[in-house]
Design a protein that fits this description.
This protein is α+β, with helices and mostly antiparallel strands. About 35% of the residues lie in helices and about 30% in strands.
């Protein structure tokens, strides 16, 4: 990977660390949701905007020629290199004072994910990857799960209000028929990070956005997971389906869930 990408990655790690400190300082206490409801189960907190603004300003000052896209403000700058941020992934958890949320920042070179940072400060975890240099969790190399039998697998599915009625239940039923254990944790980025490090054996979301997955795509690739062609299937410009899986059960999950990995 080029020196230009590595320079950006190192700067971004520091910026995301500062953003994580800001998010922690703004985290609501445990209890009912302290947030605005945009639509069913789609929450917005003051921290979402503040964290995105911090990252955008700092990236823009260091690399003004780069593009930038955030969940809250959209695509505010264009460039061949594009930073994509979800300032608080798992906002429903964050808004209730829970720990399972993260800041996700990915770097794309055109349509190629080249670096990713997922920082979960309440969990004390930082996942990072640079294309061709492996994936790490808190500095230690990670790999996708070695599981080869779906009967011992743990598979998470994300929920979206954009999915037609009945689809979520149908896919969860397919997971159960494989003998796998279903999960749902409320953060797509962290679920994908869990696939990358082997804590989960698969993750499916029928409609997910680029800012949720831009960092995870680089991390999953470097960790050896198999991933459906999210960017090719429209993920660069809108919501698309994403399946990520441990290689040993990827074909079984793909067939059962009717999501192609090719």
């Amino acid at each position: 990977m080029s020196d230009a990408i590595l320079c950006r990655f190192e700067a971004a790690r520091s910026i995301v660390g500062d953003a994580a400190d800001l998010a922690m300082s703004m985290r609501p206490p445990s209890g009912g949701p302290a947030a605005t409801l945009k639509s069913a189960q789609d929450w917005l907190t003051e921290a979402d905007g503040a964290v995105e603004a911090l990252i955008s300003a700092r990236i823009g000052a260091l690399f003004p020629e780069d593009g930038f896209q955030g969940e809250e403000e959209g695509r505010t700058r264009t460039g061949r290199l594009r930073w994509v941020v979800d300032p608080i992934d798992g906002t429903s958890n964050f808004a209730r004072g829970r720990n399972r949320w993260c800041i996700s920042l990915g770097l794309l070179d055109g349509d190629l994910p080249v670096a990713g940072i997922i920082h979960a400060p309440a969990l004390g975890e930082v996942y990072t990857a640079v294309r061709g240099r492996g994936a790490v969790l808190n500095g230690r190399p990670i790999k996708a799960s070695p599981v080869t039998d779906t009967r011992s697998a743990m598979v998470e599915m994300g929920w979206s209000n954009r999915v037609p009625k009945g689809v979520f239940e149908e896919k969860v039923a397919a997971i159960l028929r494989l003998g796998a254990m279903p999960r749902s944790g409320g953060s797509g980025a962290l679920a994908l990070a869990d696939v990358a490090c082997g804590r989960l054996d698969g993750y499916l979301e029928m409609v997910i956005n680029l800012w949720d997955v831009a960092a995870a795509l680089a991390i999953l690739e470097e960790a050896g997971a198999r991933v459906s062609p999210f960017l090719r299937d429209g993920g660069l410009e809108g919501g698309a389906t994403l399946l990520a899986a441990a290689p040993g059960i990827a074909d079984d999950l793909s067939a059962a869930l009717a999501v192609s990995l090719d």
